């Protein structure tokens, strides 16, 4: 698809709109050069001229540069010295943060890190033609959290088998719920499913029926303080 086009219309605005239709984009994503203002002519009949414009699509900025610039400004406003390393892997943007106060950026159960990741996702995808997935990590937190959740999933699955009662985990973000589901997807006796609405959506562990479906008629076990503490590790 072409990145620029010349169009004429009765007015400059009409010419621009015709160009935007052909380029399949919006005005904020283009640069406009007016080649001819156009004129109505004598009594709007004799000597009238159409307006002519050259409309160019703005060059798509590097997602790594966009993310790094946004994060630098944010960390500067927080008086934090953070090294930022961003790289694209196919359609995924991976960002690693390094500094002396990374615990502050991680937050409780990674909630602050998730919030930063959400903001960067919005900024990077604002003018992107295709969706770019963003993953932000620091001090290998994501991998450590993944290992904690996988261990938790297997330990609670054993408890479900022993007690024959459902176990309800505390609300988690979609990334962490996927870790729980993936950890137990090949378990012979226990399966998982999600319930609730964001941001309070949670995972339920339950015994499988003979046909492999969740056994929905079992009593749910309430989370004990000890269990909740285990879920909240990291």
Write the layout of secondary structure elements.
Elements: E1 4-9, H1 12-23, E2 30-36, E3 51-57, H2 63-77, E4 82-89, E5 92-99, H3 102-106, H4 111-125, E6 133-138, H5 141-163, E7 166-168, H6 174-183, E8 190-195, E9 202-207, E10 220-221, H7 225-231
Helix pairs in contact: 2-4, 5-6
Report on this model:
The chain is α+β, with helices and mostly antiparallel strands. It has three domains: 4-57, Defensin A-like (2-Layer Sandwich); 63-139, GMP Synthetase, Chain A, domain 3; 143-228, 2-Layer Sandwich (Ribosomal Protein S8, Chain: A, domain 1). It contains seven helices and ten strands. The protein has a four-stranded mixed sheet, with helices on one face. Strands 1-3-2 form a three-stranded antiparallel sheet, covered by helices on one side. Helix 2 (63-77) crosses helix 4 (111-125).
List the main descriptive attributes of the protein structure presented here.
Defensin A-like, GMP Synthetase, Chain A, domain 3, Ribosomal Protein S8, Chain: A, domain 1, 4-stranded mixed sheet, 7 helices, 25% strand, disordered C terminus
